[in-house]
Amino acid sequence: xxxxxxxxxxxxxxxxxxxxxxxxxxxxxxxxxxxxxxxxxxxxxxxxxxxxxxxxxxxxxxxxxxxxxxxxxxxxxxxxxxxxxxxxxxxxxxxxxxxxxxxxxxxxxxxxxxxxxxxxxxxxxxxxxxxxxxxxxxxxxxxxxxxxxxxxxxxxxxxxxxxxxxxxxxxxxxxxxxxxxxxxxxxxxxxxxxxxxxxxxxxxxxxxxxxxxxxxxxxxxxxxxxxxxxxxxxxxxxxxxxxxxxxxxxxxxxxxxxxxxxxxxxxxxxxxxxxxxxxxxxxxxxxxxxxxxxxxxxxxxxxxxxxxxxxxxxxxxxxxx
Length: 321
Hints:
The chain is built from twelve helices and ten strands. The protein is an alpha/beta fold. The strands form two sheets. It has an eight-stranded parallel sheet, covered by helices on one side.
C-alpha cells in the first residue's frame, strides 16, 4: 500500500479509502445486504492490505454504519493505527434542528457519533453538504471548538459548490478557524465537472481530494452490462443517464486494462491517482474489490493512455445544488 499526506496536513492516509455506505445496509439496499457480521471480513481484509483510511457518516443507514465501524473495525485495529472519517449535516432525526451545519445540530451530533464509533476522537470530520441557512462563520467556529476540545483532529467538506468552499478557506485563513484539509466530491472518468472549479481550487490551496464513486457506481467496471446485483438493484445507478461518450470511455478502459493485465476498475482508479487524487473512496460489496483496489496503486498510465480515456468525455453540466 502507498501512503500520502492528507493535503498540506500532517496526517498520512492510505491511497485507498474504504467507504461505509454498505455497512448496516441490510434491509435498506438490495445490492448491499450487509449487517454487522457480514461487514466484519471487509475490515479484516482492508487492514491486511494496509488500508488505514475508513469513511462513514451519521446518515449512512441511520447511524448503523458508524456503530459497525466502532465495533468491528476497532475490534481488529488499534485506534491510533486507523484514520476514521465521518460526516455531519444530513437530517438525523425529526426535529427542526436535526439537520444542517448549525451549532446546535453539530454539538448534538458529535457526542452521539463518538459513542457510536466507540472512540474519543474523529480523525476527519466532514461537512456532508452545503447548509444554505447557517452562516459559514458559525459552522467554522463550532468545528474549530471541536478541534480545540480534542474531539476532532481535522475538518473537511463534501458536496460543496466551489465558491462556498473558497469562502470557507478564506475565512479560516483570515480569522484563525480550523482549515478544511479535505474535499470529498463526485469525480470519475465520466463525471468530471469538478475539474472546472473545485479541483483547481483544492490543488491550489493544499486541500486533499478524496472523491467518492470512483467507478460511477460500478459503471466504469463494466457492471452496467454484466448483470451484477449492483447493476440490477441499485436504483440510483439505474436512473443515471448513460451517453455514447460514456460507453466509449468504458471501451477504452477495457482495452487499456487488457494491455496492463488488470481490470477496468483498476485502470479507472489509476487515472484518478494520475490526476493528483489523494485517496478515492471505494464502496466494496465483494472482498475481491478491496484486493483490486490495493492492486491498482502501482499502475502507471502513459500519457497516450490518459488521453485516450479523457478524449471522449463531454461536459454534463453542474448538478443541482
